[in-house]
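Sequence design from tokenized structure. All designs in this work follow the same two-part layout: the structure record, then the generated sequence. An example of the structure record is given first.
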């Protein structure tokens, strides 16, 4: 597992390392600076004319130490201190003196010059409010420079908790972050502002943080195959689950097709699609492997029978919001006894009828809203959701006992009592209609093979992104179609057998 701390957790890990393990703060700062210098050298960055810009916190302290180390290598280093002397931490003050001791000079004004590299040590995880005034001007100005920009720990102006730009932020080419990649370097736009990220091990103990229920994690894509359900030699189609897909409306056969295809590609044993009569022939031809049952109008007994048959249900993709789909959804949500994925219009219906969710069982539902659907469900606007993704997904999963898969370029999976997952696979080729239907099918396929709702959701989101990455290799960022994500599933899963 990979863990992504927020600012508070990183500071707590620093404190633990200093106070309990007895590694002096100044020593950590020396290691941090050494790692930055080493990485700049190893990356072949032109160090012929260096500018290090420091703030008054410990991030600035790192900057002073970097400047000293570069100066000791007889390099041309200018140091600009733009913090407040009174606000300096004890360590930063000490580093300032050490820099001056080796003959370093400190300027208090930043001038646009032809630097080869600018080291950003203005703010790290201690950024506590939006950037204004002279800090704003300086960051904008160094973003105009042609120099390579190296951020220390995190680009100044990026929130370590959310990845949001706090007023303005340094656009780095490279970021050297200490011990763990902060959450703000995972979420966009922070992820883009950071450029290439290097993680330097400076000996901060993160064990406590890894055990913390509040910590956000991801799976190591290289260890993906260990997460998959087993395929046993002595098995038959019943071993891998009977899947009921309730999807598609007139003109939306594709949603049902993509759900079902993806569930099959992920390994489900038998898939039945329940859809409107108009889609029967289309789906039969598109996916002869699926059983098709069709309806003209709401038939409670038929739905009840299908629920009894199914080991897993996926409902909502392209079902439309109308009287019939509302009745089917209400019936399913109130009566389903097996794991159930609710997607798209299923969620839009629930947004208008939250009473359907009263009394639902815990650990049985996976909801897969994109941000707009999440906004409808929570009545929180999309911009606010973007600025507090983790909190919003967690709050929803606390309010309703469901696994909440809040989809975006970085999908978040929250479940009460579990650490929150954030996904790091996938790419912009997936920003196309139908991708979400594929995800709902993948998660359903994993649940059919016995994964619990939370694991099935996390592994499904990872697999979906990896399938997108495989599809991008084949078709490029512009041309991938949602159905080709299903080919990507096959490409990823077949690697397990290699
Ligand atoms: N020993 C350790 O702990 C280690 C820490 N390490 C390094 O320390 C970094 C964390 O250091 P930190 O906690 O001192 O905070 P930091 O990011 O320098 O910023 C705080 C300063 O910024 C100021 N400020 C904030 N927002 C502002 C704004 N919008 N506009 C203007 N000012 C603003 C704030 O001022 P104040 O709020 O007090 O007015 C304060 O002066 C971490 O990222 C890593 O690089 C490593 O060396 C490893 C060992
Ligand atoms: N830029 C991107 N990077 C990674 N994943 C993406 C990106 N854009 C979209 N996705 C993924 O594609 C899916 C889109 O889902 P959704 O918006 O519901 O599509 P649709 O409703 O058209 O099927 C989500 O799982 C999302 O995480
Ligand atoms: K910084």
């Amino acid at each position: 597992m990979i863990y992504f701390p927020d600012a508070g957790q990183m500071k707590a890990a620093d404190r633990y390392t200093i106070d309990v393990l007895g590694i002096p703060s100044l020593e950590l700062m020396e290691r941090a600076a050494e790692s930055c210098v080493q990485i700049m050298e190893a990356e072949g960055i032109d160090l012929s004319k260096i500018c290090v810009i420091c703030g008054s916190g410990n991030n600035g302290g790192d900057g002073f130490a970097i400047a000293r180390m570069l100066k000791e290598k007889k390099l041309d280093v200018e140091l600009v201190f733009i913090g407040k002397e009174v606000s300096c931490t004890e360590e930063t003050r000490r580093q300032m003196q050490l820099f001056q001791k080796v003959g370093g000079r400190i300027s208090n004004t930043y001038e646009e010059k032809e630097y080869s590299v600018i080291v950003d040590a203005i703010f790290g995880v201690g950024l506590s409010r939006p950037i204004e005034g002279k800090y704003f001007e300086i960051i904008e100005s160094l973003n105009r420079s042609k120099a390579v920009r190296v951020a220390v720990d995190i680009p100044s102006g990026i929130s370590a908790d959310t990845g949001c730009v706090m007023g303005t932020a340094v656009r780095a080419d490279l970021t050297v972050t200490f011990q763990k990649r902060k959450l703000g370097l995972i979420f966009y736009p922070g992820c883009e502002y950071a450029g290439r990220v290097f993680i330097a091990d400076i000996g901060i103990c993160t064990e406590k943080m890894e055990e913390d229920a509040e910590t956000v994690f991801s799976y190591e894509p290289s260890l993906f195959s260990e997460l998959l359900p087993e395929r046993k030699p002595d098995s038959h189609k019943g071993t891998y689950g009977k899947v009921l897909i309730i999807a598609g409306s007139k003109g939306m056969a594709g949603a049902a097709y993509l759900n079902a295809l993806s569930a099959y590609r992920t390994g489900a044993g038998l898939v039945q699609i329940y859809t409107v009569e108009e889609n029967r022939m289309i789906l039969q031809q598109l996916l002869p492997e699926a059983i098709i049952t069709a309806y003209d109008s709401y038939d409670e007994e038929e739905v009840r029978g299908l629920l009894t048959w199914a080991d897993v249900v996926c409902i909502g993709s392209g079902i439309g919001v109308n009287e019939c789909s509302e009745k089917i959804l209400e019936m399913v949500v109130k009566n389903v006894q097996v794991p159930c994925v609710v997607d798209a219009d299923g969620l839009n219906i629930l947004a208008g009828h939250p009473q359907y969710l009263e009394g639902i069982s815990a650990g049985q539902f996976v909801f897969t809203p994109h941000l707009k659907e999440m906004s409808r469900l929570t009545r929180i606007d999309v911009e606010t959701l973007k600025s507090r993704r983790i909190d919003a997904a967690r709050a929803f999963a606390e309010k309703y006992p469901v696994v909440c898969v809040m989809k975006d370029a970085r999908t978040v999976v929250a479940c009460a009592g579990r650490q929150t997952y954030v996904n790091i696979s996938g790419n912009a080729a997936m920003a196309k209609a139908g991708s979400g239907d594929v995800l709902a099918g993948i998660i359903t396929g994993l649940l059919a093979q016995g994964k619990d709702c939370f694991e099935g959701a996390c592994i499904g989101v990872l697999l979906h992104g990896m399938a997108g990455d495989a599809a991008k290799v084949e078709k490029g960022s512009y041309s991938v179609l949602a159905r080709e994500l299903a080919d990507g599933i096959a490409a990823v899963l077949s690697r397990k057998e290699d």
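The longest helix spans residues 453-479. We note this feature because it recurs in several other targets discussed in the main text.
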